[in-house]
Write a structure and sequence with these properties.
- The protein is an alpha/beta fold.
- It has one domain: 3-Layer(aba) Sandwich (Arginase, Chain A), CATH 3.40.800.20.
- Helix content is about 40%, strand content about 15%.
- The longest helix is centred in the N-terminal third of the chain and has 20 residues.
- Bound molecules: zinc ion.
- The site of zinc ion has 7 residues, from loops.
- One of its GO terms (molecular function) is histone deacetylase activity.
Length: about 325
């Protein structure tokens, strides 16, 4: 197995203030745990290129991209923060970090489809799954996973791709990007009711390719494994995706105060292995996973190790 990890230094220079939980320390915690767990040496480390605007524009509206570029320029010139919403801000590095975050997902997709890699994990920020086609929000600028999935369809000609989202929050931006795209299946679970208060009702409930599973606060790994087995896996196996993308948020962890769910590292490893079984059955094993949330630094680092051990079949 060759599993790559994509990163870029700019992703650690984007920061939104000392108070902010979506901090550069998250990537440092992941790096530290990869080294401590001794799996670092088994991974192919790759530096993420910047995405081309044409890649981003497959998902995001031109006016939304231009607005962010302008706000990024303003942050560079002023040296301060430019707010997008109450908890999403740009600093001088954010625009470049966002280009490299999306670029990681696209480059990983190219390398996996080319057969250079079995699978890849993108240790990137800003995260992406709340970013709507026309609006950045919820710590997210560009929807990295959606951009990569669209790249796989438009550039590589794949006809069926699946997006698996196990972040504690609903991936509203991803759903919006693919609500009317029959070539994309999205499966997710998320704490409900909870930010961003989407994923229940609306147009998606009539679309069998949108497998949104709301779960109440305090749901644990047993509950999640059950819904994965009963709802995700049958849908994925009947859809037969040619490639699978993962919105890998680790904020449903028991120790993560951002959400109120009860997953542990073993649950992330189990979900990853189940997704790999689907990928091996239908997609030649092809998986690209992108970091989304996860705010308890220790739990995040340990969970990413569990996820990567499963992806690289080191466990
Ligand atoms: Zn989240």
């Amino acid at each position: 197995m060759t599993t790559a990890i994509y990163c870029h230094p700019e992703c650690k220079r984007h920061e939104m203030g000392d108070w902010h939980p979506e901090s550069p320390d998250r990537l440092q915690a992941i790096e530290d745990q990869l080294i401590a767990s001794r799996i670092d040496n088994y991974l192919d480390h790759r530096e993420a290129p910047a995405a081309d605007i044409v890649d981003i524009a497959r998902v995001h509206r031109a006016d939304a991209i231009e607005r962010l570029r302008e706000q990024g320029r303003e942050a560079k010139e002023n040296g301060g923060y430019v707010p997008i919403d109450g908890d999403t801000l740009l600093n001088a590095h954010t625009w470049d970090a966002a280009l490299h975050a999306a670029g990681a997902a696209v480059a990983a997709t190219d390398a996996v489809i080319a057969g250079e890699l079995d699978n890849a994990f993108c240790a990137i920020r800003p995260p992406g799954h709340h970013a709507r086609p026309g609006e950045a929000m919820g710590f997210c600028l560009f929807n990295n996973v959606a951009i990569a999935a669209r790249h796989a369809i438009d550039v590589h000609g794949l006809e069926r791709v699946a997006i698996v989202d196990f972040d504690v929050h609903h991936g509203n931006g991803t759903e919006e990007a693919f609500l009317y795209e029959p070539r994309v299946m999205m499966v997710s679970f998320f704490q409900h009711p909870f930010y961003p208060y989407s994923g229940v009702g609306g147009e998606a409930q009539f679309n069998p390719h949108m497998v949104n599973v709301p779960v109440p606060a305090m749901s644990n790994g047993e509950k999640v494994r059950q819904l994965v087995t009963e709802l995700w896996l049958p849908a994925l196996n009947s859809f037969k995706p040619q490639m699978i993308f993962i919105s890998a948020g680790f904020d449903a962890h028991r120790e993560d105060d951002m959400g109120q769910m009860g997953l542990v590292e073993a649950d992330y490893a189990w979900i990853t292995r189940k997704v790999m079984e689907v990928a091996k059955a239908h997609a030649g094993g092809r998986i690209v996973s992108c970091l989304e949330g996860g705010y308890n630094l220790s739990a995040l680092g340990r969970s990413v190790v569990a996820h990567l051990k499963a992806l690289a079949e080191l466990d």
